[in-house]
Amino acid sequence: MTQSRTRISKAVIPAAGLGTRFLPATKATPKEMLPVVDKPAIQYVVEEAVTAGLSDVLMVTGRNKRPLEDHFDRNYELEEVLVRKGDETRLARVQESSDLATMHYVRQGDPKGLGHAVLCAAPHVGDQPFAVLLGDDLIDARDPLLARMVDVQERHGGSVIALMEVDPAQIHLYGCAAVKPTVDDDVVQVTGLIEKPDPADAPSNYAVIGRYVLDPAVFGVLRETEPGRGGEIQLTDALQALASSPDLGGPVHGVVFKGRRYDTGDRGDYLRAIVRLACEREDLGPEFREWLRRYVTEEM
């Protein structure tokens, strides 16, 4: 009898950052709760995980992140008010976030970097492959990047990272991958990784973006990984070890993403993301686009 593989079901979302680029808005509000149109950014990320079949979500949080837990929990008082008003539309929207997935939370404690945040998930994840989604990157729901990455991991084993081609002058802002082609146009094998290289030292213009599907062997590598750039434990360094020594935990592949990505970690890109998503909404788009045209014309 052929033994079937266990389908990946767990997602890890690191959410312990302080959001200093958005101060003072993030002084008392987690950056993940900043609204993108009318939903907090973090809800888009959880929805993406659920759409890809990952129904078990662990958030790695820190101090002052209690609103994240509250958002994905029931609010019986608010629901009761909406029931009494007969406002079924808003009631459904309020209940949507609490019904999305099975949510879990663990605190990172010391902010020792993304690699350390992932390592905090080890007791929950166990010995199964899992996904990591960074909250600053929103992937358009029409572009199923994560589902494609899960498929590639189940076919090849090891770990899979998301890559985008960027202007070589911008590669210093990202982790960068050295790659070689495979038989699939959108899949490459990763032979090396470097965190935020100088453009002259970058092996390619393939930038690592905030989606990963990881073999649990990464936990053992992270435990042995010394602090790197910025004095933090870098996930990129652990993936470099796996890419250079596949016997540690399988190969590392990359899915080259050419779809729609919204960066909510930068103030300008955050504003652009709101405008783009609002323009595409059926309920908001027509009126908003017309206002935007008039505004741009008047300002020009």
From TrEMBL:
Catalysed reactions, as listed in the record: alpha-D-glucose 1-phosphate + UTP + H(+) = UDP-alpha-D-glucose + diphosphate
Keyword Ubl conjugation: no
GO molecular function: UTP:glucose-1-phosphate uridylyltransferase activity
Its EC number(s): 2.7.7.9
Sections of the chain in a coiled coil: none
UniProt cross-references to Pfam families, sorted A to Z: NTP_transferase
InterPro entries with a match to the protein in the record: GalU_uridylyltTrfase_bac/arc, NTP_transferase_dom, Nucleotide-diphossugar_trans
UniProt domain Nucleotidyl transferase: residue ranges: 10-274
Entry keywords, A to Z: Nucleotidyltransferase, Transferase
Top class in the EC scheme: transferase
Transmembrane residue ranges: none
PANTHER family: UTP--GLUCOSE-1-PHOSPHATE URIDYLYLTRANSFERASE (PTHR43197)
Record-linked NCBIfam families: galU
Similarity-based family: Belongs to the UDPGP type 2 family.
Name of the featured protein: UTP--glucose-1-phosphate uridylyltransferase
Gene label: galU
